[in-house]
Amino acid sequence: MRFSIAVLLGVACSLPAQTKTPSTDARQSGAPAGTSQQYNDLPNYDFNGALQKLRGQTTPAIPPLRTNPPSVAAGAASKPAGAPPDWRAPHVELNATAASAASVADAWESSFNLPTPGADGRVLYTFGEGMPVVVCAPLRVCALELEPGEHIQSPPQIGDGRRWEVTPVASGSGLTQTALLIIKPIEAGLDTDLVVPTDRRTYVVRLVSDATRYISTVAFRYPANDPAKWSAFQAQQDAAARSAEEQRKEKSLPDTGTGMTPNALDHLYFDYKVDGDPDMKPVRVLDDGQHTYIFYPNDGRFREVPTLMIDVSGKTELVNFRVDGNRYVVDRLFDKGVLLLGVGKKQKKVTITRAQDYASSANPGGRG
Q1: Where is the composition biased (Low complexity) (predicted)?
Q2: What strand order describes the sheet that includes 178-185?
Q3: pLDDT tens-place string over residues 154-173
Q4: Considering the entire predicted model, what is its pTM?
Q5: Residue 181 CB contacts under 8 Å (≥ 6 apart), including other chains
């Protein structure tokens, strides 16, 4: 004889030590009503065995939620209301090339790109290691930060422009100005992608909206830039080493007192005559066979640089020179020159005359 568990428990609870009318006891206890035969057989029922059997049963697993009936093929669209009897869902057969290409793209998009912590709360992705994911939340803003100095070439393209807002902004200025994209979803549970073309690379980013979780700022590491950085660093190291070697050599050579390199000692010529205003007279004039050097005391006596005129074949010509500390350097030789400062009656003048014609100075015997 089979009994429902509710009936058995209800009847068992309602049985007193003395026999009562079954229907009356059931009504008084609120237990489910049973037949007269069930109540007569109740004292002989094996309650312990029934409880052991119930404890031995396992709860069946809950099947996963199915988005389509089992008869509908995966990926097939349901038939819309009012469609003709011969309606078929849109479907494109992929050949081997297309299927293989889609598989390669899916492998890259689903590959793991390790996010690492960066400065000021940034989440760093390695560019090119896989598709980065930006998690945003409604009522929050996310920032996609590009490389400093990188410029966005054209408006970013987003797969779902209706439910996502993307706004370009910039921080900093000059060569280190940084472009950012401010991203906001209008609801949770969205999944789309974003393409950002710049003057250096193209970013492809997946955008996901969550109800509460979000990433405030996403930035990137650029491994492709590492070789260029190392090359620039090595070039700086080499230049510093060469400069140090040149300075070491210069310090090891004797000082000529002229500011020129010692290898010009064999070509120096000092025999110059200087006449004129004593306030404008140089303390020394010499040449090295190619340049003429006019030395003045390092006392800052001149608030303005004098003009140098030289005599060339009986004609006076203006000659430019450069100032190097307390000396004037003329990139040529001359037999006679005039330094002029001021105009009119207040003009000051100094005449510089070479004792030997410089055309014949190639003869070492003519050196002074």
Answers
A1: 69-83
A2: 116-117, 122-126, 217-221, 142-145, 178-185, 164-171
A3: 999 999 999 999 999 999 98
A4: 0.44
A5: 143, 144, 146, 156, 166, 167, 168, 169, 194, 196
